[in-house]
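HOLO CASE FILE
Compound: adenosine monophosphate
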Amino acid sequence: MEIIRDPKVFQEKILELKRSGKKIGFVPTMGALHEGHLSLVDIAKKHSDVVMMSIYLNPKQFAPSEDLKNYPSNFKKDTEAAQARGVDLVFAPTDEYMYPKGFQTSVDIKEITKGLCGAARPGHFTGVTTVVLKLFNIVQPDVAVFGEKDYQQLKVIERMVRDLLIPVKIVAAPITRENDGLAMSSRNAYLSHDERMAALSINQALRMAKEMVAKGERSPHQVASAVRTHIQSSGRARVDYVKVVDPETLEEATNLKQPARLLVAAFFGRARLIDNCLLG
Ligand code: AMP
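Model generated. Tokens follow.
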């Protein structure tokens, strides 16, 4: 497995592969790889001939007050895990390669980035869409895999691809969980033992919400309020949001007659965890 840092060298490699008729699969990551990331590689393999992974901790999607400096990283372990899973090429640029002197372009997507994580993390999605479009231009993938764990991100990327006619197929990957139900996340590494136990309340609350709807509850407000109460009762959570939204537009759902998505963000200590599930 080759590791390339220079975007131009990477682009040339890709052009060679494309000329020989290979279908390119792509899994963008920020490193600190876990089974959730690696499940995306498995999916990419099913849709392509060669799998590219980017490992790049993108500073533009972190606000100055956020955890960029402390974000876990272990490049050697990541590349070993990627190789073992069958990644063919890793793109691991430096900031100088991604944002050289004079860089001043950004991609802004309006409505769908306003609420949820976009409201809590101003500028975050501009950082995400800018880097993902640049990565798409470098990797030129036929297929790119994104996790449903970051549900708003997935929908924002789908919107960008549709709006800008980017010739890539976006494939959504289901959320990979620990055995006890906690959604896998690089940020779980920040949790103390007690915080981790309390964080299980998120998945418990999602399951409870599904049950409420299965038993006939049709009020998004009632569901969201029960979810919030359950997570707060763990004693260690600071809930950022609990929202029931339209699965495509992410606008707040007014009833649960149609399928909706329940999205949650909550702090446990310094870890901001997000999770979600389909309702109905
Ligand atoms: P990140 O490194 O956090 O930017 O994540 C890279 C990709 O992995 C994104 O598409 C995430 O949605 C996806 N991902 C992260 N955690 C999980 C998980 N537990 N299950 C599925 N996909 C995930």
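CASE NOTES: The beta strands are 2-4, 24-29, 50-55, 89-91, 143-147, 169-173, 237-245, 260-268, 271-279. The CA atoms of residues 238 and 267 lie 5 Å apart.
CLOSED: yes
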